[in-house]
Amino acid sequence: MRKTIYLFFAMVALASCKKYLDKLPDDKLSGEDIFESWQTAQKFLNNVYSHVPDEFGQRDGGKYEESDNYNNGGIWTGGSDEAEFLWGFVRSNNMNIGAWDATSDFVKTYWTNYYQGIQGASTFIRHADEISDLSQELKNRYKAEARALRAFYYYQLLRIYGPVVMMGDEPVDPTATLQIPRSSVDEMINFIAAEFTTAANDLPVIPESDGDYGRFTKGAALAYKAQALLLGASPLFNGNTDYADLKNKDGKQLIPQNYDVNKWKTAATAYKEFLTTFGSTYDLYRVSDANGHNAYRSCRDVMLVDWNVEWIFARRGSVDSRQYELCPRHDGAPSGDVKGGTGLAATQRMVDAFFMANGMSPVTGYNADGTPIVNAASGYQLTGFSDFKAPSSNATLGAKSTFNQWVNREPRFYVNITYNRSTWLNPTYPMETTLFRGGNSGKKADGSGGDYSVTGYVVRKSMSTGKWGNSSDHKLVMLRLAEIYLGYAEALNEADYAGNLTETLKYLNLIRERAGIPQYGAGANALPIPANQVEMRDAIRKERRVELAFENTRFFDVRRWKIAEETENGKAWGLDIDATTEPGFYNLKSFETRVFNKKHYLFPLPQVEVNNDVELVQNSGW
Amino acid sequence: MKQLLVIRKNKLGKHALLFLLIFATTMLPVFAGESQILKKTFVSVKFSGGNLATAIASLQRSSRVSFAYDKQVLSQYQVGPFTVERENLEKVLQRLLQHKPLDYEEVNRVVVISKKEEPLNKQVAQVRREITVSGIVTDEKNLPLVGVTVGIGGTPTMTTTNGDGQYKILATRAEDMLVFSYIGYVTAHEMVGNRTTINVQMKPGTSQDLEEVAIVGFGTRQKKISLVGAQSTVNPQELRQPVANVSTMLAGRVSGVVGVQRSGEPGKSSADIWIRGIATSFGNSSSPLILVDGVERNINTIDPEDIESFTVLKDASGTAVYGVRGANGVIFIKTKSGKIGKPQILFDYSEGVNTFTRKPEMLEGVDYMNLVNEALTTRNQAPMFTQEYIDKTASGLDPYVYPNVDWIDAVFNKFGHTRKANLNMSGGVDNAQYYVSLGYFGESSFLKTDDQAQYNSALHYDRYNVTAKLNVNATRSTKVEVGVMGYFSTRNAPYESPSTIFGSAMAATPVMYPTMYPGGIVPGITSNGASINPYAQLTRNGYRTENENQLYSNLRLTQNMDGITPGLSATVMVAFDAFNSLSIRRAKRDDTYTVDKNSPYNPDGSINLQRTWTSTQPYLGFSKDNGGNRQTYVEGALNYQRDLGRHRVSGMLLGYASSKTNAFAGDITSSIPSRLMGVAGRATYSFDDRYFLEFNGGYNGSELFAPDNRFGFFPAIGAGWVISNEKFFEGLLNTVSFMKLRYSYGKSGLGLITSGSRRFAYITEVSDGARGYDFGKNSTTNTGGVVVTEYAVPDMAWSTSLKQDLGFEVKFMNNRLSFIVDLFNEERTGIFMMRRSAVIFNGLQNQLWGNLGAVKNRGVDGTVEYNTNIGEVSLNLRGNFTYNKDEVIENDVPPQRYPWLEQRGDNALARYGYIAEGLFIDQKEIDESAVPGDKSKVQPGDIKYKDLNGDGVIDANDVAKIGRGDVPTTVYGFGFNLGYKRFQVGVLFQGISNADRMLRGRAIMPFNASDASNAYAIAADRWTVDNPRQDAFYPRLAYGEDRNFNNTRASSWWVKDVSFIRLKTALISYALPNAFLSRFGIKNSTVYMQGINLLTWSKFELWDPELNTDNGISYPNVRTISLGVNLKF
Description:
The complex is a heterodimer of chains A (about 625) and B (about 1150). Chain A is α+β, with helices and mostly antiparallel strands. In chain A, about 35% of the residues lie in helices and about 10% in strands. Chain A has 19 helices and 18 strands. In chain A, a hairpin with an 8-residue loop joins strand 13 and strand 14. The model of chain A has no long low-confidence stretch (mean pLDDT about 90). Chain B has a 22-stranded antiparallel beta barrel. Chain B is globular and about 115 Å long. The two termini of chain B are about 50 Å apart. The relative contact order of chain B is 0.12. The chains are: A alpha+beta (about 625), B mainly beta (about 1150). Chains A and B meet through helix 1, helix 2, helix 4, strand 18 and helix 19 of A and helix 2, strand 40 and strand 41 of B.
């Protein structure tokens, strides 16, 4: 009897023990609940979207901390020959001098970011049909968005790392130990193109409502499909024998070793399909005033007017931090609205790349000591000063003494570059920005404190005409029609110079016409038509460099074209910001020596991945 | 719970179970059983003949029983040679005293041998004779001891000494045994004989004594001789220092504790402590479990005056009972409670002055400008300062335009201040005792304040501690103890944290701007708010007030259950703790101005100032934070202790549960109380005080683990052998008075998962606060994001630690010299960590967690102590050390490309970087060498790194172990206490070795920032073209981040040894003559002078080597010298 009583108490005690520790957070959202309703499923899809890179966030771009705290902004602007960041913590500064490797945090950041997006997209596609309160049509549309995002993320991985591991259609089992080899470039391009095509079928041509802007549309999907095909046709991935040894352990060649001109044709066809389908949807953005087409305003405002007719894909970006970098320090300014950080400096080579107002290149090349070879026909003057009124100058101000290098340049020069003694673009505060030592935005005279430009120039494109950091929904354009025109022209020229000449020139000239400079073989003051494929290639590349300056294409273009060993290597140039007198400031001076070797065409795969997946081969040279 | 069902099969278990169930939620310790020494002691003696006194002495030695006798009387009787083997002591005595007019009697565990009396006379004598015995009881310093209990053995007669240490008691027979007892002292016995005055000098209770007890797991008392585990104690007296936090006083004072004080900031000056070093890794907690009166509580806010005992449990025999909490060791603090006796009032007060142990020395203005110019011009850049500018600054004639400021002096005063007071009262009668204490601690900092500020931003910390304890014997067999402790503290501070201000003071260059412009106008340079004026941050940016209130309460009931079976008792304890904090912040920021360097003066002669910052908060703002938690703890236990002849057994069975709730949790997961419950058991057996065997076990779990996997069993066994009690050892006893070997082996665990890792790892976690995305054409909306942040690890468990300890104790010279040495080995497996072998391309937000890590920790710790008296001088020398070597066995990282990248085999906190081979000698060497970045910026005098894999590039493949980290392998302490008449001097040195720090960050890397920054004065010790020294502290100077890139890489160049020895504490005290004070009602008083961190010897001289900073930007540790008085009423 007593035994029974003890046993009874023991059981009561046991039961209460169990309960005492049973304090599960059971009122929380669990993994299974997410797809029960659209209310939470849409948040899941939002998170899949969040892996679209925030390219305005390049100051901290690539920052990686444990537990999901990373910055997916690229390091493409300061990491190319377009610009240089002032601050030492910016990761592109390490990259530029070759101080990076497979263990660098940003190498892991982009890899992590895009694979998380891929896993999220696959999970959404797998479970979207479980959503109980959504029509089949909408389910299909959102699945198509996820599919397009997944293809977009593979495209990003491909251009950063080269061919990577493809995860298939189903989400990954979290407990699985994965040992998967890399896919080839062709497999990836085919997959990406096919997925964009499939997705496009269920996507709307234009967003259904204002609130849907930013979602993948049919146009965005087909545009990126063409972009991916162009990447696959480019010299980096099309018969690039520098990567002959990049093979999986089973001998599979990852980068095609035989050049195939048809890849350009496929790309051109994709661009053509896009332009045909969306001929009435998109157009180059233009601003007219009393004098007709205003090229300066057109090229400036295409970046500033949200979702204008030229925009194909865009997101909200870190406008505050980008505009802080673009706005000079402006000591003594009457308002904080125009006092920024001067952090993102344009290089002299980028400044040289802009055409003259007559459409000609001011510089045709460089001497061994870094000095420019001036194109005498262009009228470009290396020295001296002239009275000049820039289009960026306030309407009420007259001409003023300007360094000759910056006189009579094309409108896009004034859209893109803040130079010494230029007028600030905020019409309320038409300040003069001085960038020499002791100037209001240059190094301090006594060397104490202050943010300054390391080249004597500041990047200006995408800068608001109001206060800096006016984030009132100013968006970041990821892809606009101009890039499609230029991609199309490039694909046409590479596929067949002579056969496509008319079509090539049409789209190249559309860009120049909008930029307000003479066209090739047409219009007023026409320039001669590039005489062969090589000349045309050069013209297209120059146009692309200028039109898409500071829009994160240059970094990938010089790699795609396999010219980075020239453009990204050796001394990088600016003006002499340490000169103690203003005239000394105008001298050319190298601010650093950049390092670019063959291996740098592709990022290394993160070391930890190569360690953990025995099937994974590292990129050549890393 | 399984154990219970097993144990209930025997009789003992039934009771255990019954009581566990009665006090289902709780439980407690006990010790019982009046020993009957004569009957239970067995002796083996070989006596070669002599008088009775020597015979009894040899019995005493071999039996370890205390005898009391009149040596003169006994030495009259001769005894022939005899040999006894394992014979009952009573029988042996009977035989020895046979036919002699002597009798024996056991009184208070002392065997008294006295003259036999005629039965008839005895009766008469008792009626007739009354002997008044009086005397004075003194301590080891010959000072009167107040409140000593004086009793007559075997009778209820009892008294206590008065304020002068005097007592008077009535004895009835010459054979009466006076027993003098006082906590902390060895109980003294004196036979009355024919004396009427008996003065006793009591000895502090440090010598080995049969009756000496030790605290073991769950606060149970156990005879010290029977310990089989490694544990050390701290004399609470030593913790009475003028510091806020007890933890800062432990390193070097007790073997096995590794401690480092990371800051001297008032209110934030606690130390990091580890028991036997670090035996875990991967972000798991390495902190010990700290229990105050049995409940997990904060060590730092206890008033040291209230501590009665301080025990560190180091090995498995002590920690297994704590199961999933025990692996990092346990510190058990017991607070004081009342003692029987007249009310005793103690008052202690001290007042001290603080200075920095070491203050950073920064460059002065002219040196700064010259070095900046050198850094620039030697790298082909323009100088920053003209000679005219430098000359004007040097002249000091125009300080507003050409300032030269020592910012460290500008923000810091030379002295801080410490005040400490404690008033306590204790006493009681048979049935009830009390202890009440009120403590105060106050500390002010070095930070300056500004007279013009309208508010108080001075940094000071005040804490009041209150303690009240009451022990009541509710019935003859039931004891009730109630204790309430708590504190409330207030910390007032500038709004900006001291480390921010400190950082600014090191960043601000001496020539940037003056501390203030006339009229209280704040200088400042940049429009974006960088390069902030440190003095303005300190005095003009507002203030914050932080309040904390803590209540600890305990209620304990102990029931003697001799009625059921002798030696059995039960106890139940309930504790309730509540904590809350409130932090109020009042921030503001003034406009800043700078002199227009182009036209520094206005026409009227005033300074021409330009505004550089327009404040958006020119008046005090307001914000606040609340924090708080509640903790309940219940415990119930059965204790059994019984001596059966030479066999002694004891047992404990205990159940407990605790729950802690964060009252201000920010989310659902953290709002769920942390809970623990478990059962602990102990069984000990000893034979003849020679052989000891002990079993400890814990069975417990917490809400952190999956229901099916929630409880774990943690057993430990231990054995001890007192070799000196063996018969064969007898001949050695004159030299080696005590020798013991002990060994323990067992398991404990660690299931406490620290912040940043995962709670509830057995369930999948979904975050609905994940990144979302903005959609919309003109305005955008973001409906938020949802993502699976963590996938479930259903089989997740605690990490398991297998601990072994081999201890050796030996004493010489009649216990005056003692050594204790312990060798330990710990293997920790299943350390909870994120998978590192998983690929990132699986796309998970976070990799799965698992019990994957393994760390091994081995070492030795030891103590040596020597006590002696030379004439009137008493001397105590002591030393201790701890050495440990931890080693990562498994880190779930796949094989590396190069052997030097492998981190298995390194210590847990190892430091990695490039290996510096020296400084480049010439351009040719640079051309031939690999560098980490832009080679065109590298010049002779820059650091050359070893290209480990020889690929011509310095990158991550050239990273190797370059240091151990800042937690030392070796901690030691040594010191002495010297007493002479009324003087007492005590000194403790403490040191660490084998610890390092890698310099990096602002100021310590001169001029390495895009904006300006000052440098340490040691920047003068640099490589220069004229003096190209390889042994310079700094390589060639450079200005700006890009030019410093090569030299600022993490490398062995910057790894500095931070070993040190310091005079940690010193005390000199003088006891004032009583006659002088008695007229004020003071019975006893001592004045003392005390110092902390008085002297430090270290190769590292830039800042205090204990600080947790790589560039010295941290509130320094302080040196305290205080004067105090201690009064007894």
